[in-house]
Design a protein that fits this description.
Elements lengths: L17 H8 L1 E2 L4 E4 L3 H6 L9 H17 L5 E5 L6 H13 L4 E5 L2 E3 L1 H6 L4 E4 L4 E4 L10 H28 L8 H15 L2 E4 H6 L5 E2 L12 H14 L3
Parallel strand pairs: 2-3, 3-4, 4-6, 5-7, 6-9
Antiparallel strand pairs: 1-2, 7-8
Helix pairs in contact: 3-4, 6-7
Length: 246
């Protein structure tokens, strides 16, 4: 867990409008809840097609996380995630921020954790699925343009990204679930084989837990979202230590 010494606690103005703030900025700093959803303006411009993880979502999340750190410096964070996935680089900015958050974090997943959002999901201390949500992983789509050297360089980078993705899943699956007795390399091979066979690999909420890619299914107890077991805390710390610089 990242070190944090708060010397600049933020105080909320009594004239603050919580409804406006929630709908416009996706944050409730009174309770340390952030809503990881598409930017309202981007969603409107997309004309019904979810824009997914993009620079606007990542930027808003980093600002909101910082606000929560400053307004409630001794509290954990709850992220309500409802996004179909999206850009790798922007998603990894959210992933990194979650790993570096100075307290425990929960992600409550709505609809689907898929593609990039399935990777973001793994960064939380506690990963909770809504009962009818699902999980999906795949190689993702690649688009590039430019001269031959530019495109070749891009594809070399995309190969590296594939290794990071498998790492993100495999390290969590090694911690809990039915594959935890397997070696990391065996888990990664299994994931690779599943993607090669199906392209898009779907899991129900229960299957996601069985695979070690989620911790629980939400039972309606909102207060329990910020309660963490010793195993969850330790697994979260071990996971962060793998992905963060020594």
């Amino acid at each position: 867990m990242a070190a944090w010494k708060n010397n600049d606690k933020m105080k909320l103005d009594k004239t603050d409008d919580p409804v406006y703030r929630l709908h416009t900025f996706g944050i409730d700093p009174q309770s340390n809840h952030i809503f990881l959803t598409p930017d309202p303006e981007a969603a409107f411009m997309a004309e019904g097609v979810e824009p997914g993880v993009d620079f606007a979502m990542a930027s808003r999340f980093m600002i909101n996380a910082r606000i929560c750190m400053m307004t409630n410096p001794d509290s954990g964070l709850v992220v309500h995630m409802k996004t179909c996935g999206g850009e790798f680089g922007e998603g990894m900015a959210i992933f990194d921020m979650l790993l570096m958050y100075p307290h425990e974090t929960t992600i409550l997943n709505y609809t689907h954790a898929r593609s990039m959002s399935s990777m973001i999901f793994q960064a939380a201390t506690k990963r909770v699925m809504m009962p009818n949500s699902h999980f999906m992983f795949h190689d993702g789509s690649i688009a590039d343009e430019g001269n031959l050297k530019t495109v070749r360089s891009g594809f070399e980078f995309y190969d590296k990204i594939g290794g990071v993705m498998l790492d993100i899943y495999a390290w969590r699956m090694k911690q809990r679930g039915k594959f935890k007795s397997w070696s990391l390399e065996r888990i990664k091979k299994m994931l690779r084989d599943e993607m090669d066979k199906k392209d898009d690999v779907y899991l129900t909420a229960k299957e996601t837990i069985d695979w070690g890619l989620a911790d629980s299914i939400f039972d309606g107890d909102w207060s329990a979202l910020t309660e963490y077991t010793d195993d969850q805390r330790q697994h979260g710390a071990d996971y962060a230590s793998h992905f963060l610089p020594a």
